[in-house]
Inverse folding.
């Protein structure tokens, strides 16, 4: 299959690097004014290997972005009350601007309760119901990082999306619902599709902007994509490894080769939305720091 020469492959790695460099500049200027660096506290409970990798990257990139990283690695059997007490301590710590509790938490801990305990002004993951409500109400708040990164990638190829038809597949609190709100705020006409949607391919074919946040490998086929559409693939799925091979290949929720033959612009997996998530976490930390200190954010 040949790719139309006009198809833009959206380079999330480059966009994320540029955003991190911008955040680092902002952090240096913040430090100059406030006499301290913006601070991000990351809490990891247990030793889930994927979470260890994410937390390691977050800590490294926080430092590279000229911010202070506070790292808390707690054993898997940490009592819920102890975790809640740590969150409350960090809420009260003036050197901490952002608090991130790495999910998923061990089963004996109620993650909803932990998220509710985070000061909404420091909720850099944007998961506190107050921040979800602010997004819905069009008030300033902190928005979840993956949808924020996805929106920035859409804007990188099309500044004004007013009146365009956007279809979001997936209605999770983490991705689907917030990105639908952001698209609506940017004046797109938004359809939310999910596991009960009838004739999903036909719904997708009407999309000028198609966002897939499902978790089903290569669900979206090339003939679901409207010619020229912007396709944002949030999915990260690991295929089973081939016989004798180590790890399986990473794929998104979109059949990439098929879709890019039709789309106007598309994000690859890996290298699309993924790298934007941490960059937006750093941006949210800087935003939270500025707001807490009364600086324009
Ligand atoms: P989730 O499981 O919470 O939600 C999935 C949604 O997809 C649900 O609303 C469900 O209704 C819908 N769905 C499931 N099967 C469907 C089907 N066959 N047809 C239509 N809709 C269907 O998942 P999530 O947390 O929103 O994550 C979605 C994907 O995005 C996953 O692959 C996840 O790994 C990835 N993700 C990536 C990043 C990143 O940094 N790039 C961050 C978060 C999530």
């Amino acid at each position: 299959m040949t790719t139309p020469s006009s198809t833009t492959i959206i380079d999330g790695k480059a966009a994320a690097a540029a955003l991190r460099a911008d955040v680092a500049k902002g952090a240096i200027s913040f430090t100059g004014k406030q006499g301290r660096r913006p601070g991000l506290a990351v809490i990891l409970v247990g030793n889930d290997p994927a979470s260890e990798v994410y937390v390691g990257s977050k800590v490294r990139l926080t430092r590279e972005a000229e911010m202070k990283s506070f790292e808390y690695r707690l054993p898997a059997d940490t009592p819920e009350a102890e975790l809640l007490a740590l969150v409350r301590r960090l809420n009260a710590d003036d050197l901490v601007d952002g608090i991130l509790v790495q999910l998923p938490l061990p089963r004996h801990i109620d993650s909803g309760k932990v998220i509710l305990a985070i000061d909404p002004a420091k909720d850099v993951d944007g998961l506190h119901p107050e921040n979800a409500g602010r997004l819905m109400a069009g008030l300033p708040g902190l928005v979840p990082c993956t949808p924020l990164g996805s929106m920035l990638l859409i804007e990188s190829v099309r500044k004004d999306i007013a009146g365009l038809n956007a279809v979001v597949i997936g209605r999770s609190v983490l991705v689907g619902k917030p990105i639908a709100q952001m698209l609506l705020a940017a004046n797109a006409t938004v359809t939310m599709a999910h596991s009960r949607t009838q004739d999903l391919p036909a719904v997708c074919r009407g999309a000028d902007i198609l966002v897939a946040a499902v978790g089903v490998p290569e669900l979206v086929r090339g003939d679901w994509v409207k010619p020229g559409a912007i396709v944002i693939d949030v999915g990260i799925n690991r295929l089973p490894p081939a016989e004798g091979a180590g790890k399986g290949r990473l794929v998104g929720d979109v059949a990439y080769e098929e879709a890019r033959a039709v789309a106007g612009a598309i994000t690859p997996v890996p290298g699309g939305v993924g790298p934007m998530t941490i960059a937006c976490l750093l941006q949210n930390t800087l935003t939270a720091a500025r707001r807490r200190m009364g600086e324009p954010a």
